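Ops channel
N.P.: pipeline sanity check, posting one input/output pair.
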């Protein structure tokens, strides 16, 4: 995406939320990483008997979100003997938000794959193995070895496998164009990897925050040649970066251990940074035409929710008497899932199913309510039209009306274990559980 001047922001937002069918969904949380479409074209509700166009089993285990180019759906997976399939909290598994560690170290070889499916009927168009190994480290039983969502520039598909230590580029027919070896680094408590790449301005941007030697690296999208690299030090995080059309051009915003940093994606130059967070991030930022919103929470340690203006510059210290932020709310940060902003409201979810709504301009909390009987929530919420959609771990989707008051409009149910964030392609909604990919379409 080129760097848009401020005067073009309305045009940018129109392109981000257009509803032409089919619509591309180029990466984690869609265009701009916002998880927002202007109007809902997919069905209002669904079940195994209603508005389910197709369901296909995906071999192996993966929590990556599908990406869509035209009529093609791309997903990643890691295939072994079945032990690699992620589990859920609903079965009594200890949450990664606790202070426990990962699962047992793998002893069998995994095959890392990229699949291309037909959006029309779910049939596999091609499947490419891009590497094999016996993983050097374990992951938490709720995580997978293919949690990083792929991304696309419309001509190529790029996938990162942290457990393999490799970035690959494929054309839309599945031909391997290039690969880059990035090494395998240990993550905190062996929770595993999750950060998704971003493609922009002819580059593929890969963030790896780990307990050995974190970095942010830019590869040439056509050749795989490394263009620039920034050392991010030690400290694991899991939240994926976003592209934000701030003042002065597009910025790549990365959340990490104790900090949030904005970069010029073309050069790697740091534009601003916010310091003073406790712990790391599992979530990604949200943004609108005026501000960027982000926050974190850890075990027994709810962190702040912070908004910075599009004019942010330099180093911002949250510990200062008057930090240079638009607003900050203590103990309001999200859990696993990322916040979403629409209609002048910021929505933040805790992993235990508590939904909070804030005024995007002032930071005033408008409500904080528990979704009734919600299971653990990891997938990020999304907005379609004037409704907020929240998917819990056991496949129940709550539809909440946008606005100052808490009102659940309806719910839908599709069985499975859902940690992957859904994707939208025109009139199709793609939901991935631990074993299958489902297409909701009327």
């Amino acid at each position: 995406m080129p760097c848009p001047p401020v005067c073009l922001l309305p045009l940018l937002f129109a392109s981000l939320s257009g509803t032409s069918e089919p619509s591309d969904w180029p990466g984690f949380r869609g265009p701009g990483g916002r998880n927002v479409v202007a109007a809902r074209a997919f069905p209002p509700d669904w079940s195994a008997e209603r508005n389910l166009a197709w369901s296909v089993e995906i071999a192996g285990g993966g929590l990556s979100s599908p990406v869509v180019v035209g009529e093609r759906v791309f997903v990643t997976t890691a295939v072994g003997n079945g032990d690699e399939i992620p589990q859920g909290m609903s079965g009594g598994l200890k949450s990664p938000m606790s202070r426990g560690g990962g699962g047992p170290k793998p002893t069998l070889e995994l095959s890392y794959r990229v699949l291309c499916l037909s959006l029309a009927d779910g049939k596999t168009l091609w499947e490419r193995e891009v590497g094999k190994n016996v993983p050097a480290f374990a992951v938490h039983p709720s995580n997978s070895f293919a949690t990083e969502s792929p991304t696309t520039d419309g001509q190529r598909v790029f996938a990162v496998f942290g457990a393999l230590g490799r970035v690959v580029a494929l054309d839309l027919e599945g031909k391997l164009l290039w690969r880059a070896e990035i090494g395998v680094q240990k993550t905190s408590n062996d929770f595993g990897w999750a950060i998704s790449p971003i493609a922009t301005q002819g580059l593929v941007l890969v963030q790896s925050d780990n307990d050995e030697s974190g970095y942010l690296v830019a590869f040439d999208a056509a050749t795989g040649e490394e263009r620039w690299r920034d050392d991010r030090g030690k400290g694991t995080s899991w939240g994926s970066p976003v592209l934000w059309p701030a003042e002065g051009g597009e910025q790549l915003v990365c959340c990490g251990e104790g900090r949030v940093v904005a970069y010029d994606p073309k050069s790697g130059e740091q534009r601003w940074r916010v310091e003073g967070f406790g712990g790391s991030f599992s979530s990604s930022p949200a943004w609108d035409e005026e501000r960027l919103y982000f926050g974190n929470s850890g075990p027994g340690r709810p962190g702040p929710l912070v908004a910075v203006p599009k004019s942010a510059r330099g180093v911002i210290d949250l510990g200062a008497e008057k930090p240079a932020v638009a607003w900050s709310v203590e103990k309001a940060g999200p859990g696993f899932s990322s916040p979403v902003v629409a209609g002048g409201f910021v929505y933040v979810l805790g992993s235990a199913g508590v939904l909070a709504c804030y005024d995007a301009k002032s930071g005033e909390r408008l409500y904080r309510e528990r979704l009734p009987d919600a299971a653990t929530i990891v997938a990020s919420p999304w907005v379609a039209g004037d409704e907020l959609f929240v998917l819990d771990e056991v496949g129940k989707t709550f539809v909440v009306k946008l606005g100052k008051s808490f009102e659940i409009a309806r719910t839908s149910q599709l069985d499975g274990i859902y940690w992957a964030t859904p994707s939208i392609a025109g009139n199709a909604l793609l939901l991935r559980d631990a074993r299958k990919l489902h297409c909701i379409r009327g």
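N.P.: looks fine end to end. Residues 240-333 form a domain with the Thrombin, subunit H fold (CATH 2.40.10.480).
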